[in-house]
Amino acid sequence: MSAAKYANLPDIDTAPDLYETPDVFPGASQGSESEDEEGRATRSKVPEVTLRDGLDGSHVMKSAEATERFRRAEQSSRKKGTSLYAYTPSTSESAAPPPFSQRLHSLKHELAALEAEAQSSLTSSPQDEEPNSAELVRELADMRTRLERVGTSGDARKKTPNGATSKASHTESLRAQTVSVDDTGHERKVKDVQAVSDIDKRLGQLEKILGSSALTLDEASPLSPPLLPMYTRLNTLLSLLTQPRHLDSISRRLKLLLPDLDRLSNAQTTPSKQGARRQSGPQSLDAVDSSQKAASSSQPSSMQETILPILNRLAPHLNQIPHILARLRTLSALHASASAFDETLSSLEADQQSVRRSLTDLSQAVAGIEGSMESNNKVVQGNFDSLDMRITALTSQMADGSNLNVPRQFSQQSIAS
């Protein structure tokens, strides 16, 4: 169809197209006010041939001009090529912000979710995180009151009295919960302090029972000796004493020790008996032998006599002897530092004495120099006075001018002086 339509160019085919509608003349619908009436009015002025073909030939260009335009358009399209263009959305099509009521409603929903999470965290959080949860609940309650004030400020955001009272009651309940949480936290702190004080009391009682509180403190550490090593030592001793085989071994050792102690007591009593026999009368041969034995054992007995009272005095203090030794060890370092300090002080005193001697020597030298300077000053002053007197006498004689032998006399006087 297109080949038949454009076969006889530059003439335009006047045959009706397959998809063209037939022309409607003005007489068909005169009362309508649509845009087709204007088209019909303009087409009524066109000649009958153009009306029949459905084309307006008054503005048709020539075929040469049309081909030239088509050729130029094709060349320009080939040079430019195809390009994509993205339409920017206009500002009028951008989404408008949500209304105030909708934003307030969403904020209230988020606040309700946060309150639910805070309540769940209050029930499931440990003790150390409860104050933070309580502060969070308090802030949420304050935020809810602020949102209620904002909601009741406008006519569009007015709420019913029942809803307002329910929200107010909810905020009051939240505040009561925060106060209860604060009270529980304070009570728990008080209970913790009471538990610590109870532990301290129990430790004091345990120290009194074990005897560590009566011991002197070590200067190396300001605290009392630790209870755990002492308790473990006592526990090991009790475990040893409660076992039967250990008790049997201790009993055997005591049985072996008792005869030695008996012998020692007998050795202590025999010298006193022999001295009494010497005072009563003459000695027999047996007495002489016993005296010889006593003389041979006098040296160890004297040592025992000196040691036994010391042991008797040290026996009640056996538990404190290790601590005393530890204290002495710590004091040994202190005594060493004190001796070093004493040595430094003695050296400083010697230096001070030498400095004092040098100062006395210097003061004596300065005093001698001052005395010599004073004497020299007196001599110089006397010389100056005498010279002044002579100058005044000379000037007076020169002023008089009566005596011509003044220079000779002055020279003789100066030589005589």
From TrEMBL:
Q: Which InterPro entries does UniProt cross-reference here?
A: Dynamitin
Q: Where is the composition biased (Low complexity)?
A: 290-302
Q: Which GO terms describe its cellular component?
A: cytoplasm; dynactin complex
The family database entries (Pfam families) matched by this protein are listed as: Dynamitin
UniProt-annotated stretches for the region Disordered: 1-111, 148-186, 265-302
Tell me what this protein is called. Dynamitin-domain-containing protein
Q: Name the Gene Ontology biological process terms.
A: microtubule-based process
Ranges in a coiled coil: none
Its transmembrane ranges are none
Superkingdom of the source species: Eukaryota
Q: What is its main location?
A: cytoplasm
Keyword presence, Cytoplasm: yes
Q: Where is the composition biased (Basic and acidic residues)?
A: 65-77
Q: Which UniProt keywords apply?
A: Cytoplasm
Subcellular location(s) of the protein: Cytoplasm
